[in-house]
Every structure is written in structure tokens, then in C-alpha cells.
Amino acid sequence: MHIPIVFSFNDKYTIPAGVCITSLLSTAFKNNFYEIHILYGQNRLNQANQKKIKQLEKEYSNCAISFVSVNNKFNNAYEIRDVSLDTYFRLLIPSIFAAHSRVIYCDVDIIFKKDISGLLKTNLTNKCIAGVKEYPNSILHPKVKRHISKLDLEASKYINAGVLIFNNDIINSHKNYETLINSHMKRKFKYQDQDILNIIFKNEIKFLPDSYNYNYNSIEQGINIIDPHIIHYTLQKPWNQPKLFSQYWWDNYANSIFYDEKFYFSHIKENYSYFDIVINLGRRLNKIGLFHLYRFLQRFSKS
Question: Are 43 and 144 within 8 A, CB to CB?
Fold first, then answer.
């Protein structure tokens, strides 16, 4: 089975992308072949880093990796929350990959724990895209709730754009898609392309099982999955600081061609120092009675 899958990233994310793709290929079923397409912007992913990623073809016979330049598209796009303009490139998938009836898109700050070929068998009748609900149980910060409401969307139907299936046939057949994209790009959306996709495809979204985009927010929503297909490291990244489920990223890193012993062990040392500082600080705050004040202020800030 040939599975087309798209990623987009820049030089800064070369190693995380390599680790992500390593986890994809190492968990793939024997008869599955992944057609990996990487979207990149002008002067945003150099030849040396492209070559690093291409080395995976020598390690795994179940893939072919290609790079697709979008030139300077979205160069003036709105950026916020340290999320780069590369995030918008997924919006181009229906036009660039129109030859494929369906395409999977994934962020590179994820780890695949199981084969995901089953995603292509998802029933997408009358649906343009598929994704996992961000707030399935409507447990969310009041500010986020207000933001989604201003978009004329329902929080319980709002999806996270980190893992998507694009039904290109339907999108390209009855949607004036590019015109819609261009009109929405004039606005400054807090969650950028994610907001745009939720707006354009309102009521035309297939909801995927939570296992295909499992993250800390999933736990906050009361969703407990022991062995998900995909772990998504939203917000802080495991290669930068301690993070829930970070062991899966580091295990894949250690078993990848991108492994660097010095970096790996310096991270372990730094993490243990970090934990010691946090634990000792917590004990001291608790001892002088400030820990409960901190928790009160934290709760108050969410109101």
C-alpha cells in the first residue's frame, strides 16, 4: 500500500523532523510504502539539511522522500506564539497534490507509535478534511473559548491541525479553495492555519479517533489512552525541556541516524538538574506557605 504523507519544516526543525520520520518508518507495516513529501519555503531549508533527511532512504527501503518548494508563498503571513510561517504550507496541499485523492499531513513535533496507514481508509463521504477534536469534552480556557466563539465555531467541533487527512477530490471539485485561503490570509488568526481550516471546512470535517493526535490536552479532556498511534508535543518541545511523554521522542532519537551522544547525555544531565530545582523550589514555597498562594493565583488567571 502506497501512502502519501506531507510534512513542512525549516532548518531549525531538521533533527526533530528526522526523528519524527524515523518513528513513522520504523513502525510501518511490512507491505506499506510511504511517499514522503516535504514542503519548504525559499531560503528556509538548505541543501545540507535536505541531504540529512534524504539519508533515511538508505536506512529504510519503505519510503521515497521528495522536497517541494513553495518559493516565497506566505512570506508576509501573520506569525504568533513562536509558530513560524511554515505552518501555513499545509494549506497548499489540495492544489500541489491534486493528483492524489487523499493525502495525510502531519506536524514534525510528533512521534508515531503505530502504523497509521489505516487513516487512508477513513470514510470521508461528503467530508473535506479529517482531524482530531482539540476540545472533545469542551474543557478549555475561557480565553480560548471566546476566541473560537468569535470565529463562529463550536469548541466541541474544533480540530487540531497537527494531523490531517485532505480529501483533495472533494476540495478541488466544489470548493473555491484558493480564493477562500487568500481572503482569510488577510486576517490575523491566533491559531493561524488551524483557525483557517476550521472556518473553511466548518460542518465538512470528519472527526478522527483521539489516538491519532494524543497530547497533554487530551489528558486534560479526560481522554486516557495507554498506547496511542501518535503523540503530539504541542507547545514546549521534548528536545528543549522536560515534557510529558518525552521518553518516546528520546528513544526514537537514540535509535536514529541523527543521534549525537554528547547532545543526548547533556540533555539527561540538564533534565535531572531541572527536576531538582523545581522540586526544591516547590518544597521551599510550601514550607513558607506560598505554594497555595501560587496555586490560587494560577487558578485566578484562568478565569
Answer: no
- SS percent in the chain: helix, strand, coil, step 5: 45, 15, 40
> Phi then psi for 192, rounded to 5 degrees?
45, -125
Helix axes 261-287, 246-254, angle to 10 degrees: 160
Give every CB contact of residue 209 below 8 A, 6+ residues apart in sequence: 132
Residue 129: name the closest of 159, 100, 166 by CA: 166
| Number of Cβ atoms within 10 Å of the Cβ of 242 | 14
* Cα gap 217→81, rounded to integer Å: 17
Kindly report the pTM of this predicted structure.
0.88
Q: Give me the residue spans of the domains in the chain.
A: 2-254, 261-301
Which three-class secondary structure state does DSSP give residue 127? Answer: coil
CATH topology of domain 2-254: Spore Coat Polysaccharide Biosynthesis Protein SpsA; Chain A (3.90.550)
Cβ neighbours of residue 198 under 8 Å, at least 6 residues apart?
151, 153, 158, 159, 161, 205
Closest CA to 110 of 241, 244, 16, 187: 16
Rounded to 5 degrees, φ, ψ at 180 are -65, -45
pLDDT tens digits, residue range 42-79? Answer: 999 999 999 999 999 999 999 999 999 999 888 877 77
pLDDT of residue 136: 84
E strand residue ranges, the chain = 2-8, 33-40, 63-69, 102-106, 110-112, 129-133, 159-167, 205-207, 230-232
